[in-house]
Design goal:
Layout: H1 3-14, H2 19-29, H3 33-46, H4 50-63, H5 68-80, H6 84-97, H7 102-114, H8 118-134, H9 144-175
Helix pairs in contact: 1-3, 2-3, 3-4, 4-5, 5-6, 6-7, 7-8, 7-9, 8-9
Length: 182
Amino acid sequence: RSPSRGLGDVYKRQGKFNATKLSQEYLRKFKNKSKAYIETGNILKLLGERKKSQQFYIKASKIDPSNAEAFNKLGISYRTEDNLKKAEYYYKKSISIDSNNPDVFHNLGNVLKEKKKYSQAIKFYQKVKYINKKKPTNNFVVKPIISIAKILECVYFSKGKKKYLVSLKKVSKNYSKDIRIA
């Protein structure tokens, strides 16, 4: 559980929130200023302040242009606004910095799927599977099974029911108990 989750809940219950004050608290708490801005952005996002959260993610990316997490958060933020072009840009930027975060590959796959670029989306979803095989004990959010289910959706939409059923049959041997695939 991230520190922002707990503090966000406290602020929400109390009905008080001052983003500047919170970011100052985080700047004292974290030696990494970029992390402080990301955590502030996370709380703002939890509180429904998407535009403000975006500003903090932008600050984090400017403070540390090598912080892949800041760019992933920006991608998420723009995807929430249905700005798929900017979301795709920031996910790619995040991947160029850190190519071992399956969440970013999954996020980019989602954007490409929404843009109906199914074959490209499949490549990014497959990368999630590959990274998880390489490093299965990670603490990332996206599990490969979700990406596998997304691959099946892309196959269905791009290649039709017949190819989908063939793919489903192959996948269901290993994942028959998962509801997304069942």
